[in-house]
Structures
1.
Amino acid sequence: MKRSIITTADGSKTIQIEDWNEQYHSKHGAVREAYHVFIDQGLSQIQKKSIDLLEIGFGTGLNAFITLIEAEKRGKKIHYTGVEAFPVNKDELDQLNYVTSLKAERFDVSFKKMHSCPWEKWCTLSSFFTINKQKKEFKDISEKNEYDLIYFDAFGARVQPELWTETIFLIMFKALRAHGILVTYAAKGSVRRAMQDVGFKVERLPGPPGKREMLRATKMADDHFLPTVI
């Protein structure tokens, strides 16, 4: 499929898959969306000083990069697992402008190391941030009660509906610890119902620029409700 680099409304770049008319981040602002959905409504809600975090759709590394910056600011230790079945290539990464968009020049080396460090191994990017990039499909995640927070940043249900089903959200539910949360830019009713059907308590929240709403799901207790999902 044809891919191109585009500039979003806040000046930050993202990748567009032209055949799908789908982007890795919002055309209304890649950085704005990432901060609103994943930092403000996700990371900021976790009070622990040491956080185990799972990202569904590592993609360009933008969410991981801003989380690294925020870990330093907040003095939180973050162990970040990023799952991606189809990694972005180096030519595309070289065209992204996240370091300058975020005015984060002092983190330039960390951003490059994030993408150059080997997959399937833990890599230390700072005293507050370690990352393990895993190349696999989301359905192959098998961890149980492992994470405090999930960034669910898969391509939209319009183009990949199989990623927004009860089957996938049950995997997410099991992977979270009790009282862990999952945040996503999505707000479709079918997505909300799939989350609720596997046991999540789901909130509708104001969305990022260009979207009216987003969703935050909380695992209220440890496996208190685990239906059989085929």
2.
Amino acid sequence: MVLMKRFCLWIVVLLSVFTLCGCQGKEGQEPYDVTYNGETYTVDQEQGTITCDGVVYQFEISSRGGNSVNLDITYPDGSRYYWTKDGSFGHGGWSNDYNPETSGYVPGDVLWDVLSLESTGQGHSGPSLILVVFLLAVGVFQIISPRTAWMLGYGWRFKDVEPSELALTVNRAVGVLLIFVSIICLLASL
């Protein structure tokens, strides 16, 4: 009975942590600067704008699932540039009135590159915070209560059994390893 109460308590704690981690989103994300080819671009994901030399370009990014990403950029004069990336392949085009060279605007492929820098390592990348918290929680659980961890993993299959000292030691070692991996993941996400 005590074992079941502890298990339920751990489930409630983990679900609470996952819920709080799931509240993060693009809302409230601060604009950031990207330097590309000697120019500084200010990207505001929330507003969907890129600003360079006082010119504001509107963009919309959408996903069609998998690795497919659509980018649609609208220039101040109303012309458009669009690009679709499917995995490692891409294709795109522009409206008939698109001519950034004569208008003094930044070409669409450069704006695509500026937006791509965030996802290719120049911005925030790394393991999810949910993964880090999960690994940390499981690691701590295995260290604090190796017997319960063993019972949840193996003991429920048998009647009236106890784990060996080796099994308990292995559970603790796995817990230490999971904590170590979660710390590495946390450092990688910074």
3.
Amino acid sequence: MKYIGLLSSAASGKLGGIVASHNRGGTYFRHHAIPVQPRTPAQTAVRNQLQGLSSAFKALSPAQVSGWNALALTVTLKSKLGTTYNPTGQQLFVSCNKHLAAIAITTILTNAPTIPSIPGFTSFTVANSSAYGYVSAITATYAPALSASFGIELRASSALSAGRTFVSKSQFRTLAGYNPATGLTTDLLTPFVARFGVLPAAGTIAYEIRYIDPASGFAGAPVRATTTWQLTPQGSLFALSAATIAGTLSTGTPATEAITWTYTPAGSFSGAVYWSITGLPTGVTASISVNPDSAKPTITLIASAAAVHGSYTVQLVGTYGSFQTSTPVSIVVGP
């Protein structure tokens, strides 16, 4: 257990069956409980990434390791207790390469880089708009304008209770990374729904953005913004019928087949619906002519030579803000 002061005015860690933690009210003690490890696909991916980067560091040359160790001595971080410390060379190596992976740079940075100067944001605000009793858009404004010289990581919490004011660092999850940062649009609802699913009738979302230098992997200071809503949904906005394709998706061409289905708006609904296909088998992709679309777009399935023969059921999903519905599509992939 780590502590500061003779009376342990600040402490962190475990001693026997007692764990010292702290929050905004100060230090407190609790019984140690072994956490449940659900081992979700996201958790597994993160652990595999950290394991792979740790193995990559061990494979560096002695000169490269020395370079990272020397660079780490110039970097100052802050612990949970508010004290400062220097990371190890391995910790810095893993951190920089993890940041690069967040903006889709998968080439391992082996040589210690030069610490860059990363700009900050003077303003980051998020607001939502609604229609038909549903959140129809969540938009962001950035100042100054996004820089094309850096990548950017977009993170968010899940939809929390509408009265929530404090969001801990551990509750944020990465939604997407963009390189250059100008690829991040003002639309923050679409990546959120893709990560967490549709929104409840009431809630709060905290968003976070930070620049990442694509040359060094160093990340800038994150900035946060929240948006809150409380609505009364009007019920189903549109309906989808069971969908089909006309024939078999033949592999090796590649082959295409259009999906046939019925889209029925309810009442006066005329919003632009975002369309997607989930559960596609390996080697099969979807092409959507207009997305989002206030009418019914042309959706075509494409089978490559890598597609595995068999019968599958995928889902055609229509999303309007926080309203979502789907219908199954039976497809056959064959020779």
4.
Amino acid sequence: MSIEEYLKKELSHFTQDHGLDVPIILQRPKDAEHGDFASNLAMQLARPLKKNPRQIAVEILASLKLDAKYISKAEIAGPGFINFYAATSNLYDQLLQIFEQRENFGKVKQTNPLKAQVEFVSANPTGPLTIGHGRQAVLGDTVANLLEAAGYDVTR
């Protein structure tokens, strides 16, 4: 399970306990000092709970059972943002996973893959070749490769 999936699951416990159906949004802060992930959930819940967002953020943090394997610390910032800092051990585990899986990392294997047909430019042997032909060939092949990595059965 990724850190993002883990955080969404943990934050959804708070919304479920309060009988609310709010999408859990995690963002990557632009400034590294604000952590690895940030959530504005407290501000989303301010109106339905009729409370100050910062107070809701305190309640959210108190209710979270953060696993040190995923998150090293969490803190409240500004009007009610919750910043989460990823545990370095988890990042090392992910790097090891990338190293072990090599070219298969990130690829999805589906038992019943959807079919996709990607048509893209091919060189005309009787006409002139242009930079546009080369660019479109690369673009089409890249789209087909991405679909294959996502688990599609691709015909070029």
